[in-house]
Structure formats: C-alpha cells, structure tokens
C-alpha cells in the first residue's frame, strides 16, 4: 500500500478544520508524543498532530486523509494503547483526541455513562465521587490517573471490577465511530436513532467487536457508552501466600468458583522490590522480604460488600475456601496486610504500576490471556525465561470474570539506555510469543512485529476475513496501517 | 550538552502523564466545588491548551529525542521549555522520582550555551543583572533606599532583602525591618547586597548567577553574618539549596521570615493581640514550600521523617495565622506541597506575563471558592503577581503579606 506525505497544503487544510492552534508539525511537539515503555517499545513520530474537539472535526479530518491517502493514528489518552503512534512511514496524522473530554451522560437507573475519548481516570473518578458517589466508573485498575476509560475499553483491558464483570470490552454498550469515508455509525441499541445505549447487541448482528482490539485500524471511536457499577463503601483486601504458582492458581480457583470479589490479582514476590531502586542489593534477596512476611507467591482478593454483613460473608467464603485448599494439601497462609497496604491497594485510580521504572529505568508489560487453570504453567515458563534472558522474573496475574480466564503479565524491567538490553527484550518477547501461541494463549494487545504476525500466521482464515472487513470500513487503508499487520 | 548527565533520569519517564495532576495519589480527597480528587496541577500544560509538549512528560520525551539526535535544537524549544514556572509539581507527583526541576534548569543552561535566540526579556534582565546587580534595571545605589535605619551595621543577623522587595515592593522590606525592630533585634541591611541569582539560575544563565552568588557570599562572610533572614522565597531557596551546590556549604544559617515570626511568637517576643475580622487563606510559595520539601526528600529522609518535616514546615505560616485573634483561616484545595503555583517563577512573569496573570487568577478563584476574602503569603513574587491578577481581573480578593498582617495585630 502506498501513502502520501503530509504536505504544507494538507496542514493548512487541517488547520482550517480544527483551528491553527490545534495543529502542529514542529519536531519537538511531535517528539513529545513518543512513548517506548509500559505497553510497547516500538514507536515513531507522526508527521503532524491534529487535536479535534468535535465529531464533525474528526469526520472532516478523516475524509481529508482518505482523499489524500494519508495514514491516521487515533489516540485517546495515549496510555492504554501505550504507544498509539504511527508505525510506518510516511507516518501521517496523529489524531490526538484528548480535547474530546466530556462526560456526556450518566444514567444511574440503566447504569451506564457516555464519555468521549479524552476523559481521564483521575478527573472521572473525582466527578463520580462528587456527583454519583454510589456508583463507580469502570476505570482500569492499576492504570495511572491520566489513562482513559475509552482507551481501556478499546484495548479490551481490565477494570476495577474485572473479576466480577469481565474485561473492559464486555462492559461496552455502544460506540459512536467515525469512518474514513465520513460515515458516522453507532453500535448496539444506539444504532437506532433516538434509542438509548441500553442493549449492547443492537440491531441484528452487531459489529461493536470490530472496533474493540482494533488498535485504531478500523475507525475513530468518538463516544463510548459503558456500564457503571455500584460503588461500595464496605471494602477489604485479603491476601494469601503460596509456595509456587501452581498452588496459587489452584487454590484461587476454589475461591473464584464461589464468585466473590471484584478484583483478584497477585503474582510473585518480585512485584515488591522492583518498585524500588535496584542499587540496594538486599532488595533482590528474597530472604530480606521473607523476614518482612512477603510470600513467594501471593493473591489479593478485593472484596466490595453491600454492607458490613455482606463483606464479612465474603471474607468468610475466601477464608473457608483457602482452608479447604490447605486441607487438600496446598501450602497456603493468610498474609496479613498492614492497613496502609490495604489502603494503597484499595485506592482508585492508583499509581501502583508506575514505579517499576525505578529498578532498571523502564519496564514493559507483555500481557496475555490464558484459561485460569493454565496460568500456573504460564507463570513457570515466564519466570524461567525471564531469568534465562537476564531479567528479574517479575510476574503478575489477575482473574477475569471469576476465573473464566486469566490475564497474565511478565513485567520486564530493563535499562532503556542500553541497546543490548532492548534487543534482549525483543528476543525474549519473540521467544516466549512462539511458545505461548503454540499453547493457544492469546496476546492482549498484539504488537505489529512479533505478536500479530505470529498469531495471524496460524489463524489464516480469520486473518483473511479480517482483511476483507477492514476493506469495508477503511477502503483506502489509512487507519493506523501496519498496526495489526493489516494494510 | 550538560543535560546528558541526567540521561538515566530522563529515560525513566514512562510517559504515564501523572505529573500533570495535583494530588495524583489522592483520588478520594474531598474538596469544594470543582476542586475535588485528582485535579490539574501543571500550569504550563494547562495554559498551553493541554499540548503534551508543555507538560513535563512531553518535555522528557523531547529531551530524549534531543539526546538521540532526533529533535534539533531550534528556537521552537524556547517557548516549550521556558513557559514553565519550574514550580516542581511534576517532580512531586513523579513516582519514578525524576528530578524535573534540575533537568529543566540544566537544559535551559544548555539552550543558552547553544546560541539559540533566548527570550528577549530574559536577555534583557540578564544584561541588567550583569550591569546593575538586579534584573529590574534599577540603579544599584537605590537598592537600600527604602531603609531608613543604619545601613551596613555589623550584626550576626542579616536581612537579605532581594531585588523585588528592594525595588518593587519596598513595603514588604519595610515591614520586615519594622518587625525586627519591634523584636529588638539588631540586623544588617547591606548596601553590597546583589541579586541572589535566582532568576538567572532559573532561566539558564548560570555563569551570571554564579558570579552574583560569589559576591553575596563574600560580602556576608566578611560581615561576620551567622544568620541570614529572607522575606523572598526565591532568595531563600537559592541561598539554602543552590548556594551549597554552587559554592559549598556556607557559614550562615538561612531562615525564612515565616520561621522568624513563628520563633518570635514562640519566645513571646511578639504577640498578636488585635483582632482581625477576616477570612483568609494561605498561599504556599513554591520556593518556600514544595521546593524545600523536594530538597529535603532528596536529602535521604525516610518516608516518616519526610512526613514529619512536611507537617512541621507547612504548619509554620498556618500556626502564625491561627494565633491571630478573630482571624478565620480556610484552606485552598491545592495546598502545601500540592499547591498551585502563582505563576510568576521560572522567568515566566518577565517573558510570558499573560500566562503569569492567568495562573494567578486561577489561584484567586480557588481562594474565593474556599470562602477567603484575602490570600496571605510571604513571597514578594507571589504577592506581586497575585496582586496584578486581582487588579487585572477586578477581583475583590485581597492579597496580603504575612509580615504586614502580623504587624497590624501587635
């Protein structure tokens, strides 16, 4: 596929659409959007950044780009996508949607909200605490306050209620999408003019899913209708320690089957020291942490009760199942968390995931979905491979919808100033991806160089159909080309 | 480029963008009106229409591009790196502890050395500082004109007045002198005092700043001074934090006017007795507040020690206000280390006056929403900028200097 460059004439046209102050092609301004960490390490600068405020502006920009065959990469907060940046040259237009930051509707009866892509977790949470304290928006857990609900939903990430309600994509009730052809479509029941977004499956076959996980390759989502949840003031966290990941997964499954808890997540002891500076050698010695009570492997159960009685019931269920696990021969002990530890974990949004850069200077989350009961195998492979490649074996896992699946993640702490280390990271990713795809595990956010090609090389029939669908929505292939190995 | 020495720190930016907020770790913080939970805390990014380049996170990635030869050094960088008051909010919020203020100041010095055309206002105040020892272009001999006491009186306590109080807000300097006289303290006001170098350091004019710093240190050392008193937050920060880095540890203790007032009250030397029927709020100047907090944090204090220090330090002016009979004190939402900057620092007031006024008016609105009739502070830079904004936007919120307020109650 051939594309055209962004010319000065195109920039003038873009300025006439969104206003000159919302367009820039200055090298420094473009570089400010770069990101090579957290979710991905490959990124290039766009040719121009355009910051629309309204749907009509998005529509005009896309039609212009479509006419001139210029690539467009949409970006909500630039966090959930991690590196929502162009991948091929000419890099084209980066459509920064952060100015579209209105909370358009909250319906406490039908329990959904409608938000624009630029609505960030921190301000959204504050808005709910002030105006709808009895409800919680489904913000991504562990993501920083600048991340967005739209980005998380489009990435099919996890939220503060993922153990209870499924991945963020499951909470979507409808989308408003602008296509490169200039068409504006809504999905779910929203597709019917005048209808509210109360029913996600809409008018016959619903194509919401085409845009979820598409990483901006199909169109630009300008509105999201998404479920909100009762927010409890009765919360607690229980934590349990294990000797190995297989025990952790098996024992946790016993609890998950009881369907309690909004968030169930854990991992290994390496999650603790790698949030601190690497300089102190004692931090890398487990014995130091063992003395402080940190288990080798652990699982946190975040419980939200309707009232204290309900909360106490949930605590009893978790402890009862762990007792049963112990009786079945699993070595398990309750890890009594300090109130400050609980407070920090219950805080939403929080900054828990940010300081992993302290260990080596940067970190990469490589996230996978597996059946819950296979997450122990996944963890064992990860730990072994991370050690083999010279990375601290930091591993995190969370339950999705009461253990129907697991979201598993090696957190690779690396030195971003070392080209050798970055290359080693790439090799680790390729090596493990080959193994994981062989096992039938699915990458959460397929990257364009390793995950997507390996995945689609096996799923040829699906890939072929996906390319045809892409042609329907984006006939000139201008939407984030290359991102998903799609033209 | 000197900024390369911060490469490890610059590369630690994972682009989480948390640095743009105040209270980024307090999502449930209760407030008032629209001031609640996590809220914007970066003047530069907010003022510049939320363009990523103006936030700290964007700047870290621009610096990365510069270090990798991907971004050229051009005049485009001036507005991006100078439309920032270096208030330190980004550094406070950063979980990866990137020393943003040091990095910005170092890069500004790189820009100066690179030969890129710097902002004409900064160029001009640098020339003034070289020729006249102050950035305002005022004659040096007029520096102590405000003082009707005996100049150059040898004393262990010196009052370092600073350029802004000397030339633009002499009423602040007079109030401090009156306070010291009321307390029966002998003090030195030196005609040899020159600009502390703060504005020069902030805009990257390091050589000029160093030269001024040397003159001040030599002068006050020769005068046998043991204790330096400051009513200007910028001068206090520069003497306390920067001078030891530039010239090694100094033989004199630095003390802010807030501490001095508190100390005199604690000793019973002064006592507010007259009632003030007014509702006020305290504005924490960045250079007295957050910068000192960050400096202490970087000095190796444990979390507990830092918490204790912060409580004690930020309580000082508040305790002074609480001790004034009848005075009602309310807090603005963003306070202490999470304060919103007044908008004057980092060379912004000189080069980007509209941005400075906008930031100050944001602060005035926050005070008004908190129910305050007046903002009390103790930095002449803040006082001046907040007063300018109150005048410009016709606000009825009064801007009051702490020392002057205390004097009215004695």
Sequence-ordered SSE layout with sheet pairings:
The complex is a heterodimer of chains A (487) and B (410).
Chain A (H helix, E strand, L loop, with lengths): L7 H11 L4 E2 L2 H5 L16 E3 L4 H14 L3 E4 L17 E4 L6 E5 L4 E4 L5 H11 L3 E2 L12 H6 L7 H4 L6 E7 L5 E3 L21 H4 L8 E8 L1 E2 L3 E9 L2 H12 L6 E6 L17 H6 L5 E9 L2 H20 L4 E3 L4 H8 L10 H4 L1 E4 L2 E3 L4 H14 L5 E7 L4 E10 L4 H20 L3 E2 L7 H8 L1 H14 L14
Parallel strand pairs in A: 2-4, 3-4
Antiparallel strand pairs in A: 1-2, 5-6, 6-10, 7-11, 8-9, 8-10, 12-14, 12-15, 13-14, 13-18, 16-19, 17-19, 17-20, 18-19
Helix pairs in contact in A: 1-3, 8-10, 8-13
Chain B lengths: L6 H4 L10 E2 L16 E2 L2 H5 L8 H12 L8 H7 L6 H5 L6 H15 L5 H13 L24 E4 L2 H6 L1 H13 L15 H5 L3 H17 L4 E4 L2 H15 L5 E4 H10 L11 E5 L7 H8 L5 H20 L4 E4 L17 H4 L1 H17 L4 E4 L2 H13 L5 E4 H8 L1
Parallel strand pairs in B: 3-4, 4-5, 6-7, 6-8, 8-9
Antiparallel strand pairs in B: 1-2
Helix pairs in contact in B: 4-6, 13-15, 17-18
Brief synopsis:
The complex is a heterodimer of chains A (487) and B (410). Chain A is α+β, with helices and mostly antiparallel strands. In chain A, 33% of the residues lie in helices and 20% in strands.
Descriptive report:
The complex is a heterodimer of chains A (487) and B (410). Chain A has 16 helices and 20 strands. Chain A has helices at 8-18, 27-31, 55-68, 121-131, 149-154, 162-165, 208-211, 245-256, 286-291, 308-327, 339-346, 357-360, 375-388, 419-438, 451-458, 460-473; strands at 23-24, 48-50, 72-75, 93-96, 103-107, 112-115, 135-136, 172-178, 184-186, 220-227, 229-230, 234-242, 263-268, 297-305, 332-334, 362-365, 368-370, 394-400, 405-414, 442-443. The N and C termini of chain A lie close together (7 Å). Chain A is α+β, with helices and mostly antiparallel strands. The longest helix of chain A has 20 residues, at 308-327. In chain A, the strands form four sheets. In chain A, strands 12, 13, 14, 15, 16, 17, 18, 19 and 20 form a nine-stranded antiparallel beta sheet that branches. Chain A has three domains: 8-96, Uridine Diphospho-n-acetylenolpyruvylglucosamine Reductase, domain 2; 103-230, Uridine Diphospho-n-acetylenolpyruvylglucosamine Reductase, domain 3; 234-423 and 438-443, Vanillyl-alcohol Oxidase, Chain A, domain 3. With 410 residues, chain B is an alpha/beta fold. In chain B, helix 12 links the parallel strand 4 and strand 5 (253-256). In chain B, helix 13 (257-266) packs across helix 15 and helix 17 crosses helix 18 (380-392). The N and C termini of chain B lie far apart (54 Å). The chains are: A alpha+beta (487), B alpha/beta (410). Chain A binds chain B through residues 21-22, 24, 26-29, 31-35, 37-38, 45, 51, 77-79, 96, 98-99, 122-123, 125-126, 129-130, 144-146, 347-351, 354-355, 357-358, 361-363, 416-417, and chain B through 7-8, 11-18, 20-21, 24-25, 27-28, 36-39, 49-53, 55, 57-59, 61-62, 64-65, 70-72, 74, 76-77, 80, 95-97.
């Amino acid at each position: 596929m051939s594309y055209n460059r962004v010319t000065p004439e195109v920039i003038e046209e873009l300025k006439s659409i969104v206003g000159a102050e919302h367009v820039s092609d200055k090298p420094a301004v473009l570089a400010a959007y770069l990101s090579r960490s957290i979710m991905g390490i490959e990124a290039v600068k766009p040719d121009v950044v355009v910051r629309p405020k309204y749907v009509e502006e998005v529509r005009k920009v896309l039609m212009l780009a479509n006419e001139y065959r210029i690539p467009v990469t949409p970006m909500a907060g630039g966090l959930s996508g991690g590196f929502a940046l162009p991948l091929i040259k000419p890099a084209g237009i980066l459509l920064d949607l952060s100015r579209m930051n209105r909370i358009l509707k909250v319906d406490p009866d039908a329990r959904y909200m409608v938000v624009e892509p630029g609505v960030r977790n921190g301000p959204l949470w504050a808005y709910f605490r002030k105006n709808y304290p009895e409800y919680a928006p489904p913000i991504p857990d562990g993501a920083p306050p600048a991340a967005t609900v739209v980005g998380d939903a489009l990435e099919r990430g996890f939220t503060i209620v993922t153990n209870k309600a499924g991945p963020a994509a499951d909470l979507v009730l409808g989308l408003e999408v602008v296509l490169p052809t200039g068409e504006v479509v809504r999905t779910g029941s929203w597709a019917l003019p005048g209808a509210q977004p109360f029913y996600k499956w809409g008018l016959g076959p619903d194509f919401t899913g085409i845009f979820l996980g598409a990483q901006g390759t199909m169109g630009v989502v300008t509105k999201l209708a998404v479920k909100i949840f009762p927010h409890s003031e009765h919360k607690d966290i229980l934590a349990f320690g294990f000797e190995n990941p297989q025990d952790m997964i098996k024992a946790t499954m016993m609890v998950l089957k009881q369907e309690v808890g909004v968030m169930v997540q854990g991992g290994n002891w390496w999650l603790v020291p790698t949030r601190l500076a690497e300089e102190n050698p004692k931090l890398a010695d487990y014995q130091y942490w063992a003395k402080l009570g940190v288990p080798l492997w652990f699982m946190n159960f975040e419980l939200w009760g309707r009232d204290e009685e309900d909360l106490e019931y949930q605590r009893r269920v978790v402890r009862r199942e762990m007792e049963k696990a112990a009786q079945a021969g699993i070595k398990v002990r309750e890890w009594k968390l300090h109130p400050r530890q609980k407070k920090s974990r219950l805080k939403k949004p929080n900054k828990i995931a940010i300081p992993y850069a302290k260990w080596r200077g940067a970190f990469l989350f490589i996230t996978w979905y597996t059946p819950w009961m296979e997450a122990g195998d996944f963890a064992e492979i990860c730990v072994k491979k991370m050690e083999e490649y010279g990375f601290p074996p930091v591993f995190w896992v969370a339950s999705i919808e009461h253990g129907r699946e697991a979201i598993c993640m090696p957190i690779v702490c690396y030195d971003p100033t070392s080209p050798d280390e970055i290359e080693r990271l790439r090799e680790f990713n390729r090596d493990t991806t080959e193994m994981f795809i062989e096992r039938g595990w699915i990458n959460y956010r397929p990257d364009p160089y390793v995950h997507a090609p390996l995945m689609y090389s096996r799923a040829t029939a699906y890939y072929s159909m996906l390319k045809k669908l892409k042609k329907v929505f984006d006939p000139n292939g201008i939407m984030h080309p290359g991102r998903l190995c799609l033209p | 480029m000197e900024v390369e020495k911060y490469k490890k720190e610059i590369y630690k930016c994972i682009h989480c963008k948390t640095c743009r907020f105040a209270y980024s770790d307090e999502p449930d913080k209760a407030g008032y009106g629209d001031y609640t939970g996590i809220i914007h805390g970066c003047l530069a990014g907010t003022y510049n229409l939320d363009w990523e380049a103006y936030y700290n996170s964007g700047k870290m990635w621009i610096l990365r591009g510069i270090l990798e030869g991907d971004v050229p050094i051009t005049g485009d960088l001036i507005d991006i790196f100078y439309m920032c008051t270096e208030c330190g909010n980004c550094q406070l919020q950063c979980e990866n502890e990137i020393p943003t203020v040091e990095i910005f100041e170092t890069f500004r010095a790189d820009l100066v050395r690179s030969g890129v055309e710097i902002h004409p206002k900064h160029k001009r105040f640098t020339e003034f500082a070289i020729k006249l020892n102050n950035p305002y272009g005022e004659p040096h001999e007029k520096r102590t004109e405000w003082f009707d006491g005996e100049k150059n009186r040898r004393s262990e306590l010196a009052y370092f007045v600073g350029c802004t109080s000397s030339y633009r807000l002499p009423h602040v300097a007079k109030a401090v002198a009156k306070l010291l006289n009321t307390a029966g303290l002998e003090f030195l006001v030196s005609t040899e005092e020159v600009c502390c170098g703060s504005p020069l350091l902030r805009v990257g004019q390091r050589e000029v700043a160093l030269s001024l710093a040397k003159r001040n240190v030599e002068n006050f050392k020769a005068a046998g001074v043991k204790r330096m008193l400051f009513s200007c937050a910028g001068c206090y920060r520069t003497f306390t934090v920067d001078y030891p880095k530039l010239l090694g540890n100094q033989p004199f203790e630095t003390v802010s006017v807030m501490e001095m007032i508190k100390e005199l009250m604690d000793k019973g030397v002064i006592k507010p007795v007259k009632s003030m029927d007014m509702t006020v709020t305290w504005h924490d100047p960045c250079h007295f507040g957050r910068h000192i907090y960050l400096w202490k944090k970087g000095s190796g204090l444990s979390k507990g020690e830092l918490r204790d220090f912060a409580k004690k330090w930020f309580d000082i002016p508040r305790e002074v206000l609480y001790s004034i009979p009848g005075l009602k004190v309310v807090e603005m939402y963003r306070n202490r280390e999470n304060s919103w900057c007044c908008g004057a620092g980092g060379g912004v007031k000189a080069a980007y006056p509209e941005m400075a006024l906008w930031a100050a008016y944001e602060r005035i609105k926050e005070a008004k929403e908190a129910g305050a009739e007046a903002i009390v502070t103790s930095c002449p830079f803040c006082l001046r900028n907040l007063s300018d904004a109150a005048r410009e936007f016709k606000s009825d919120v009064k801007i009051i200097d702490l020392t002057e307020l205390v004097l009215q109650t004695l």
